[in-house]
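cron nightly-structures :: item 1 of 1
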Amino acid sequence: MEVNDINTDNDPSLLQKKVESISKTKDDEDLKEVCKEFESIFLNIMFKEMKKTIPDNGFIEKSTGTEMFEDMHIEELSKEISSGEQSVGIAKMLYEQFKNGYISW
């Protein structure tokens, strides 16, 4: 590959457009990731509140380790649900809202 093959126009505005498109793509990917993380946190809180409604009727009292394991399990479950294509849909709705500018600060 020669230098001339890379930029045939020698047009600085073309380079600026390419940089902007890369930056915009990176921003979109970052926004998607943040929306998925928000959905994961929301699901984590929801599952923990749902867990509180289940009574602990057992012969053996839960240890601290068991409680920590259950909390870690809920956290990983929330991450897994929000990362898949068949997620709840909160991340997708947030992404569309922010991307299209429906949210104003």
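cron nightly-structures :: done
Residues 4 and 10 are 9 Å apart (CA to CA).
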